[in-house]
Amino acid sequence: MHLWICLTEKLRYGLREREISLYTIEVILIFSLLFSPVSLFLSISRDNPVYSSIIPNTALSDNFMLAESYTTSRREAIVDYVMALQAPEGYFHGYLLEPPPFEPDGTAATYSPVQDAYGILKYINRVDELDWSDTDEFLLSLVDQGFLNSSKQNGPSAYTCWAAQTLLPSLCISSVIDVDANAEFLAGLQQKNGGFLSELLDSIPTLVRTYYTLDALRIAGRLDLIDLAAARSFVLGCYKGDGGFSNTLQGESDFNYAPAGILLMDILGLQDELNVSLTTDYLLQFWDNESGCDTQADLLFTERIAWSLWLLGKEESIDTAELLQWVLGLQKHAHGEFVGYPEADLDNERLVFANYATHILAMYNGSHLLDSDFLVEETPVWTIPQWWIDYINSEWSTIPDDNDGITIGFVFPDLSFIISLLPYMIVAVVLVTPALWITARNRKRQIERRKQKKKRKKR
């Protein structure tokens, strides 16, 4: 509007029409409108990488985010989140903004996130919504001589032997496992005090390592391979007088180890040695019944205590309704993810937190609450963090490609945003070309008139 007023005033005060034509005015106005900041903004998609650098933290960007939001159920939001973390190679990322495996740097994809992802979908009864074929191939690539390795760089352990007896059968690929060789390997991890290591490189037997070893042997039906009396002595040595369990014989009670202790007593036939009332009282001293979680409001701690009470058959000793609502409150609208505590930032989300949360909901009959409507602000997408790209480029002179691999070479800038501007640019060229021609013609005439004036003066 300001431009229109200025040009009109010039015309009003006697500027000759041949110097600035009406056509030129119109072209300039159209040109300025097409390439105003608003037009440029609207022509650039929010999905384009340049979006955030052009319009950071504005009200318009919030509107774009809301435009991408969608309403689904809590259950399906979890499915979408898990699917976003499944890599084309079959392994799973641990969270949305995580560096990819990079073997030259000593990191490799492991089986563990696969176990978390499968557990989540099993708890919410959605296992069949994922295509597991690539994941099957990834897990099979970790199998060597009948053992499941934790990664391509690390060998088997008590934990992988347990996964080979639990996860692989669920995916119908357990035929590649040598059960007898696994059982002999596990039996060889028992120490003189009756406890177990997780692998031969370990030095201290723990209650958790003992649980995974004995449970894998139980599933395989080979508990006869170990010294059961020594194993019972070890577990009873970790069961303390206050009703809690320690992770080592010399350790102190810690509620985090209670599930392993309770399960081990069942595996070894020590149920009569377990004082249910004493252990329940021990656990409840770390519970905030008004909040529906542990006293530190931590998802991991809450899951350990709630799991222990469930194993003891003491679910009624806590306010189950408050527990379920507390867990649901940890699911965030940003991408349907779960964080580890109520005040956590979104970058605290983890796949394993979704596992803890859905495990609690499954144990305490709260899975039906996941069918309620749930707003997701943005479709979850796994993304490589920029700091990692900078690090790899500086240390290895390489860049990640779109397939999680590594490519050596020059990175061309992303100019895809120009495509959205092409229609405007074409229109501008069509409109401006006549104006430039008219201007050039008038300029040429002015020069010729000046020459004629000079000739007349000389005469």
Describe the structure.
The chain has 459 residues and is mainly α. Helices cover 51% and strands 4% of the residues. It has 19 helices and eight strands. The N terminus is likely disordered.
Provide a brief overview of the structure.
This protein is mainly α. The chain has helices spanning 2-12, 22-34, 37-43, 51-54, 59-68, 74-84, 112-123, 133-141, 158-170, 179-187, 207-220, 228-238, 258-267, 276-284, 299-312, 320-328, 351-363, 386-396, 417-458; strands at residues 70-73, 143-144, 147-148, 287-288, 293-294, 373-376, 399-400, 406-407.
Helix amount, in percent?
40-55%
Number of helices, where a helix is a run of at least 4 consecutive DSSP H or I residues: 19
- N-to-C span: 48 Å
Q: Largest beta sheet, briefly?
A: 2 strands, antiparallel
What is the percentage of strand-forming residues? under 5%
- Mean of pLDDT: 84
Radius of gyration, in angstroms, nearest whole number: 34 Å
Give unreliable regions as ranges: 1-20, 37-65, 406-412
Bulk shape: elongated
Reading the helices and strands in chain order gives: HHHHHEHHHEEHHHHHHEEHHHEHEEH
Structural class: mainly alpha
Strand order of the largest sheet: 1-6
How many E-type strands? 8
